[in-house]
Amino acid sequence: MSPTRTLATAGRVLRQLGHDPRTIGLLLLVPVLLLVLLYYVFDADRDSFDFIGSALLGIFPMVTMFLVTSVATLRERTSGTLERLLTMPLGKGDLIAGYALAFGAFAVVQAGLATGVALWFLNLDIEGSPWFLLLVALLNALLGTALGLFVSAFAASEFQAVQFMPAVIIPQLLLCGLFAPRDAMQPALEYASNVLPMSYAVDGMTEVLNNSDLTADFWRDVVIVAGSALAVLALGAVTLRRRTA
Fold first, then answer.
1. CA distance 6 to 139
2. Which of 2, 13, 58, 213 can bridge 140 by disulfide, Cβ–Cβ 3.0-4.6 Å?
3. Which terms are listed as keywords in the entry (predicted)?
4. Neighbour tally for 227: CB within 10 Å
């Protein structure tokens, strides 16, 4: 991998995104608007909003980054751009890292915006530091980016890329502990939830919600989510194809 080539790839992707205001709106505004909607849904039940809102503060960015990244990467391949790029002295690792940096930059802005709105406009009540809430939200967005890059290799069209969301995201959403405690699930489902990264993303948010001090469980959750993102990015580099068959 070459840092120069990686940064050049990231710059190209950022310039392309800069000319697509609808994608920027999806990345930055949709998570915020969904949190505002959730606030009014639980207007009379602040405790429920604090619990579900803190969890969804990480889940919403993950979902939007997954969708945008998978579709954008697939579009590069189906248009022939990716094939032309890989005929140059540009490795798959440079390409994946460049995409991760570009979308990661948007993830930073997205996570910061959503966290700021939740804390200072929607009065999300947490015991821990807002910076650690932001850290988990950012890691979740980066995980969504990594998953989007990975699944784009297995889709033949943008429609198929969107179809991966029910297969990749929704099972994690159902098993992450948001709707029912993980230890109260059937043993097989509890075991499945224990190997899904979104479970630890929600656990990390819950730790910040309920504890003023950082706990060992919080750092465990952070390491697992970050490690999952890096592992999926590595798999994305291995499975990246020049073009759609």
1. 20
2. 58
3. Antibiotic resistance, Cell membrane, Membrane, Transmembrane, Transmembrane helix, Transport
4. 13
At position 36, the amino acid (one-letter code) is V
Given the structure tokens 């991760």, which residue do they identify? 100
Q: For residues 196 and 192, give the distance between their C-alpha atoms in angstroms, rounded to a whole number.
A: 7
- The contacts found for 160-166 with CB under 8 angstroms, 24 or more apart, are 161/70, 161/71, 161/74, 162/67, 162/70, 162/71, 164/70, 165/63, 165/66, 165/67
Please report the pLDDT score of residue 152 as a whole number: 79
Orientation angle between helical segments 21-28 and 30-41, nearest 10 degrees: 40
Q: What is the pLDDT of residues 123-151, one digit of tens each?
A: 888 888 888 888 888 888 888 888 888 88
**Is the model's pLDDT at 71 over the cut of 90?**
no
- 221 touches 133 (CB < 8 A): no
Q: Is 152 exposed, middle or buried (0-12, 13-18, 19+ CB in 10 A)?
A: buried
Please give the model's pTM, rounded to 2 decimal places: 0.84
Query: Which band of pLDDT confidence, cut at 50, 70 and 90, is reported for residue 192?
Result: very high
In whole angstroms, what is the distance from residue 207 CA to residue 197 CA? 15
* 144's tokens: 């969504």
